[in-house]
Amino acid sequence: MRKKIIYSLLAAFFFLNAAVGQVLTVTGKVTDENGIPVSGVSVIEKGKASSGVSTDDKGIFKISANKGAVLLLTAVGYDNREISVTGESVAIAMSTSVKGLSEVVVTGFGGTAIKRELTGNIARVKGKEIENLPTPSVDQALQGKAAGVFVNSQSGKLGQAVTVRVRGNSSISASSQPLYVVDGTPITTNDQSSYGGDMNPLADLNPNDIESIEVLKDASAGAIYGSRAANGVVLITTKRGKAGRTQVTFNFQTGFAEATRRVQMLNSEQYAELILEGAKYRDDLDGTPVTDPDSWTSYVKNDVMGYYSYDQWKDDPKKTYDWQDHVMQKGPYHQADLQIRGGNDRTKFFSSFQHLDQTGTIIGNNLIRTSGRLNLDQKANEWLDLGVSLSLTRTYNRRLPGDNAFSNPLQAIALMPMTPFTDPNTGLPAGTPPGDVNIPLYYNPVITVQYAKYTQEVFRTFGNTYLKAKILPSLYFQTELGVDYLSQNEEGYFQTQTVRNQSRAARGLGSNNGAFVTNVNTQSYFGYDKTFSKSHLNATLGMQYQQSRAKYNFTEGTEFPSDSYQKIASAANKTGGSSSQSDYRFLSYFARANYSYNDKYLLSVSGRIDGSSRFGENERYGFFPAVSAGWIMSNENFMGNIDFLSFLKLRASWGRVGNAEIPNFPALGLYSGDAGYAGVPGQRPSQLANPNLQWETTDQFDIGVDYGIFKNRITGEIDYYQKNTSGLLLNVNVPGTSGFTSIFKNVGTMSNKGFEFVINTQNLIGAFKWNTNFNIARNIGKVENIQGQIIEGGVSSMNRVMEGQPVGIFFTPEFAGVDPANGNALFVKNVKKADGTLDKTTTSNYNEAQRVVAGDPNPDFIWGFTNNFSYKGFDASIFFNGVSGNQNNIYGMGRYSSASMLYEDNNTADQLGRWQKPGDVTNIPQVRLYRVNGSQASSRYIVDGSYIRLRSASIGYTFNNNFLKKAKIEKLRIYVSAFNLLTITDYPYWDPEVNADDFDSNIAKGNDFYTPPQPRTILFGINLNL
Amino acid sequence: MKSTIINIKQLSLVALSAFILGSCTDKLDVNPTQTISSEQALKTEGDINATLIGAYDGIQSAAVYGGDIQVLNDLTGNSEDIQFTGTFAGLNDAYNALMASTNTFARDTWVASYNAINRTNNVLANLDKVVSSDANKKKVEGEALFLRASLHFELVRLFAKAPGDGDLNTNPGVPLILQPTLVVDESSYVTRATVKAVYDQVIADLTKAESLLPSSNSRYATKWAAAAQLSRAHLMLGNYAEARDAANRVITGSGKTLATDFSGLWFTQINLGGTPPAEYIFWSEVTTQDGVNDINTFFGRTIGSIPGTAGRSDCKIKASHLAKYEAGDTRNYFILSGGFNYTRKHLDRYGDVPVIRLAEMYLTRAEANQRLNTTVGATPLADVNRIRARAKLADLPSVTLDQILKERYLELAFEGHNLPDKKRLKQNVGTLAWNSPKLIFPIPQREIDVNKNLTQNEGY
Question: What is the mean pLDDT of residues B91-104?
Fold first, then answer.
């Protein structure tokens, strides 16, 4: 939205009283250069931040101000303007073109900075850029919008956890997710669910309530958040009221979503061809004639294809049932928003309501969110401001099971194509009792969708109050109390029909889980801001205390009188019950000072002392300092004659931040009381002690340039950074013979370095407007030293942490194709020879092949490319994002579904290219039923995960005519928008933007395990302004 | 400006109090709620008893006596009796005797067994806290020794060469862990003891346990459980006299009796309400809330007509196995479902997992008497006919060693005896020789990776 706008301000001041020092009511009108009124311009008297008003739809404002005061006019998309109240009627026309660098950026703890004066690296995403996206949580919307912020939505399941990495992955065992702070309070973002994959508690925040998101990327910006800033800090600021006419905005959008991509599977004829080939191989090996009733061939014909097709296969061998199609659907989407914003010079309010009803692209998934918010600011008197923000949300989610469950609908692709959807004997879904429950081959997930339900209902409160007192004109004190209360109830009921999947559901299985997370934050700080001739000093000093308590309970029962009773009250057998609690606390003191001289030289210093209950008793407090400096070269006289260069700033920063996102009690030697036997209580040693345990430390150096060219029609940033992390909190492997498998220790170092490049251009200005934003980032992560630890994760433990490599690389034998002579899968031995080189000869004996680094789930480059167009009433935008240089692991499905028909699972269509006779040159080994041939874990299943995605595109038209005016409608916009419309990738399974929820960990990324793909959503919307 | 001055005072007070509020560092002393510190955990006799129960919980792990040890012993290389159609690669590889060093079942059994051994060692190192009576102290020590010995015994059978395969005095066995782990230091990076040393320790622990344990002890280890395990260890070593005598002590001393009907031994949850039949000498007790029957997981199957059954239908029993039973043999105990036969022994989802039952002791005594040409306790013929009579078969007029071994094979099928019996009898397993390295489990790759002092087995 960076436009070159030239606007002029015409202000006429009328004085009720000409006396000096008296309060005047000033009325003005704001227009752009074409004389068109600009509404929504904020007008404040400088130094009295709480006294502002804003212009109405005719560009008119009215404000009380002292004679001689300075009025500051700001508006999104326009340059700031200052006007002195002179005492006579004046008409001021002005034109300016500076844009982008005058934005105000939130820096935390009451701090704000004008972008041109920033010495740290903070990426800002405006609420406008992410509004009305069909992503339930705001983190997904950051994708491609902020340079150096990598987002992977992981799964198409609604409301599930999302991977966010700011400047790479800087931890191994501790979390690498950034800290999220909403209106000053660090919020709960870790999973609280008890079923399926991790959920995303950020989905309880309505993204349309957000005014701006600031991502604190470098250490000088983040150090004020101390031990919690190493993964970056995401500051979310919600919208607040504006003085002026009450604005009512109503938005409704509706549409549908479908899976972005599908996988081509074998049809019945192809399936039969392959599996009979594999059976014949086994019969030949055993010397059994294929006609023998005990032969593998007979088994496959009768007991596989016959039995699992209800004996229909022999009558109609071509009949194919597309199970993939059967479990995917077109999911409707509806969203309605109402926002009301207004106020006067003493009281300002913003309120919003949203109802969202989203249906998944996989059967059995549904998300409904209803939220309301009221943000209120009150000027109590001359020296006291106070306010409150309150958001109440209900999020209902009908969950899908984890990717690794047979009841995961997408696992239906494994079912044989000759198995009918419906049992011909009962007319019910195949496998539903009273029919044969052992058909299909595996459990039919449709039964769970139809006869079971697992729902999650969250009530979430985000609340903040503040008092801000002006002590001196340049000094204020602010105290805040924030609460994030998450109350969650999950209910599951599995009817008797699901018994093959839930064997305990023979007479019903019900469960009920509660999670109550209370997160209280209080912070108090002094703020100081003063200009001394050419110097400007801004300082903050304060403390913060946060305590979080999570309580969980659980009950479970079986033996229900009938499926009409689904609450545990009716369960004759209460099979499970539990309650638990976990706490953590942080106590911190912080200080920050920003100094600028002559609008050229900038210096910033900050520090924080952080204590946490998570750290060992010997290492309870840490100190996190940062320093940064900037030089606005373009303000130097010697630069004055370089015409094309409008702005140039050099900046550099160094800081130390920490990562404290470890379990709550990792430092203690512990016994657990969960080791009962047959109803008798027992205990077990569960954790080894480490009283010296502390945070991870990241030292980050950043050097950057902010530039503006051609009267700032081209602006941007270039950054290079280096992050060195030491004292990694490793869950260090110990010999299993000790009775333990790991202990938490601060060992090891790793580094991330990279660059970020941002360019914003205003290509066309005038009636037809076109602007472009492009950002690209490269991060190189490297594990420097982990003292020889072997740390594995992911599907078949193929992700690994290794020295000299990025976190979580794929470590597995190297596949070498197929021996044309005999159809054997070959692997490269890669055994280290005496001379240190690797033996590159091949072997068909898998155990002879050593594992090698076969891929990296971390991308090399991430980028986003946005174009916005407008012409008269039309507006359009198109946004691509891309990820390149990363690999995904498809072994999750591959070992069953791209495995030369090793098992009876249906296979991907590419398996038709298998080796059949000597001389065949192919990469698909010979089909050998139940004899492993190439389906072992290997680089065969490590594939390119790069993609370019048309993330969003929209086109809209705004009506602005007299008819609407008569109907009291200020503005009416209709639009069509599309998300994930196009994905360009070589990825062989569904979606390259993936990570299987059941395997997800900090190091286990890039895994696919029948993971639902991202939705492609088309929406039609209408927007009304009253 | 007077009002401003007052405000400064008031505000300074508020600000100051806000700071003071925050400066209580003891706020950071937060304790966990579901766990307690190690120092608190082992103070009283009650704590030691709870830790001993924890050791039972440890051996009840799916990867140990929860069933995987039995499943692995039955499944490995056993194409003779079983058609395996499961998708757990670790089990499929064991079935095909094509295991890799990363085999997850080998890893899990190793890790869970040593975890349980550490629990027993925590008990044994704190026996001085058992002060209520000498009898209680003996009981606690005996149980812990029994559990520790059983775990070392199962590990050496799976992860090392069998006695008789090369020289057991030099063949590497498994690490012997006899002390609790309080810290991980150099001594934690253990080496493999020889097969001989492991068996010596197992026999010493079991012998002591037998002397310490009471005759009856609810669901926990008894004198007879120790003697029965001892008879197994001696049988593996070919110490037939010791095996015979230990088995004889169980038969004559335990008061245990054979179940009247073979079918009465199973479905302990569905038919017996969770109480195992009197014939069980040691078992892993499963309830609807605790414990797992992993033999059921892999050998079981959901049978619509029998509520409470479950399983993955992975282990289909071959027709050739069924043909080995004589007509009328009630041990021909299979169910045909979906075209395949499944053993009925392990259909009960919450069925107790048998580890040792009395019938095995009769068969061990018969085999040892036959080999030694003795009649300790009873003649081999009498013992075999006792087992046959329970299976509703006619008495044999006379008996050979092969007949005794066949009765053993049929009686104890799919209860975890196949691999150790084949190795001790030097019989082929499927198509592989009894001493094939492919029938010996790999030392888990995670252990090799983390502990350079461990040597890998041949072929991995």
Answer: 94
Task: Tell which residue, B241, B164, B243, has the closest CA to residue B423.
Answer: B164
Give the model's pLDDT for residue A765. 87
The backbone torsions φ and ψ at residue A24, rounded to the nearest 5 degrees and listed phi first, read -115, 155
CB A630 within 8 A of CB A119: yes
Q: CA-to-CA distance for B330 and B326, rounded, in angstroms?
A: 9
Q: Considering only CA atoms, which of B328, B96, B194 is closest in space to residue A282? A: B96
- What pLDDT, on a 0 to 100 scale, did the predictor assign at position A304? 94
User: Largest Cα–Cα distance in chain A?
Assistant: 114
**How far is Cα of residue B173 from the mean position of the Cα atoms in its chain?**
18
**Contact yes or no for A300/A275 (Cβ under 8 A):** yes
Nearest Cα neighbor of A327 from A268, A255, A270, A259 is A259
Cβ–Cβ below 8 Å for B340 and A303? yes
- B37: amino acid identity, one letter: S
Average pLDDT, consecutive stretches of 10 residues, N- to C-terminus, chain A (1026 residues): 34 34 73 66 70 72 78 69 67 45 82 86 92 91 93 94 93 92 95 93 96 93 92 96 91 96 96 96 91 91 94 95 97 97 93 97 96 96 94 97 95 96 96 93 96 97 95 92 97 95 91 96 94 92 94 95 94 91 93 93 95 87 95 87 88 95 86 92 91 91 94 92 93 91 90 96 91 96 88 92 94 97 96 93 94 96 96 94 97 95 95 96 95 95 97 93 81 95 96 94 94 96 93
| Cα–Cα distance, A679 to A662 (Å, whole number) | 33
Closest approach of A466 to chain B, Cα-based (Å): 13
CA distances from B328 to B324, B359, B381, B392 (A): 12, 19, 20, 7
Structure token digits, residue A116:
């041109």
Angle at A160 between CA A158 and CA A162, to 5 degrees: 125
Q: How far is A500 from chain B (nearest CA, A)?
A: 6
Which residues from B are below 8 Å from A547, CB to CB? 27
Tokens of B75: 């499944």
- Both tokens of residue A757? 């490049």
pTM over 0.90: no
Q: Which of residues 264-323 of B touch A (CB under 8 A)?
A: 285-291, 301-302, 304, 307-311, 313, 319
DSSP symbol at A910: G
- A384-398 and A452-472: which strand pairing? antiparallel
Distance CA B201, CA B70 (A): 22
Rounded Cα gap, residues A518 and A570, in angstroms: 31
| Token pair for A1016 | 């492609």
Query: Taking CB atoms and an 8 Å cutoff, what residues of chain A touch B444?
Result: 736
CB atoms within 10 A of CB B128: 9
A500 contacts in chain B (CB < 8 Å): 302
- Write the single-letter amino acid at A598: N
Whose tokens are 């260090």? That residue is A732
User: Looking at residue A6, what is its pLDDT?
Assistant: 32
- Please judge whether A685 and B50 are an interchain contact, meaning their C-beta atoms are less than 8 angstroms apart: no
Residue A50: per-residue pLDDT = 56
> B15-48 pLDDT, tens per residue?
565 555 555 557 788 888 878 887 789 999 999 9
Structure tokens at A1012: 């639902």
Check if the beta carbon of residue A219 is closer than 8 Å to that of residue A699: yes
CB within 8 Å of A617: residues ≥ 6 apart: A667, A691
Closest partner residue to A737 (CB to CB) among B96, B190, B340 is: B190
**What's the rounded Cα separation, in Å, for the pair B141 and B52?**
9
Of residues A533, A382, A511, the one with CA closest to residue A455: A511
**Testing the interface with B: which of A385, A526, A684, A901 to mutate, by most B Cβ within 10 A?**
A684
Instruction: Say yes or no for a CB contact (<8 Å) between B41 and A524.
Output: no
Gyration radius from chain B CA atoms:
26
> What pLDDT is recorded for position A101?
64
